[in-house]
Amino acid sequence: MPLLKVENLSVRYGSIRAVTDISFSIEQGEILTLIGANGAGKTTTLRAVSGMLKPTGSVHFNGHNITGTRPDILLRQGLVHCPEGRGIFSNMTVLENLELGTFTRHDNEQIHHDMQSMFTLFPRIKERLKQNAGTLSGGEQQMLAIARALLARPKLLLLDEPSLGLAPQLVQTIFKIIREINEQGVTILLVEQNAHMALQVAHHAVVLETGSIAMTGPASELAKSDAVRKAYLGC
Known about the structure:
Layout: E1 4-13, E2 16-26, E3 31-35, H1 42-49, E4 56-61, E5 64-65, H2 71-77, E6 79-82, H3 94-100, H4 108-121, H5 123-126, H6 138-150, E7 156-160, H7 168-183, E8 187-191, H8 195-201, E9 204-209, E10 212-218, H9 219-222, H10 226-232
Parallel strand pairs: 3-8, 3-9, 6-7, 7-8
Antiparallel strand pairs: 1-2, 1-4, 4-5, 9-10
Helix pairs in contact: 3-6
């Protein structure tokens, strides 16, 4: 049984249909990436899956129909959304932002262990615990956002544009971390405009065009597709 199964998902913004009748699934332990141009429906799809938008069609997570379920309930079930734009609280310290990731948890000893794991994964964050999050660089803020999401102990992590606005060297670092997170057992649904990096790290991929699925398959095969290479890889 797939960990996530999306069937015939459609989303409207008023009279505008942003996503039309899309279906895909993710197996436990996989990375699936959604790629496509701006406006293709990638972020809308993530928001519908995580309960931020009300879609038609169905979304099943861990064997249960979660279509239209509130985000806070899904968070407690292990579906965690790390949004585009990072969503950190700039006037709070780095540590306070991290602690927000644990607000649904009561296993204090395990929280301490997980916090130490985040410091190992993101050593820059450990060095800046007392700083206001708004003083961090863009790359550091992205690391903080991912660390906060991981502290919620996701079964499925939704990552929206984690490399957006970052320097090339930091993009490499972020994708190395995404691979490490997945190797530790976290299933990931990744939205990423850097199609080259996304296809390198993902197991499977879905190509969206104007709200519909244009192509789907193993990421390694789509990376070799002439249509994908020309449209999204610049070659």
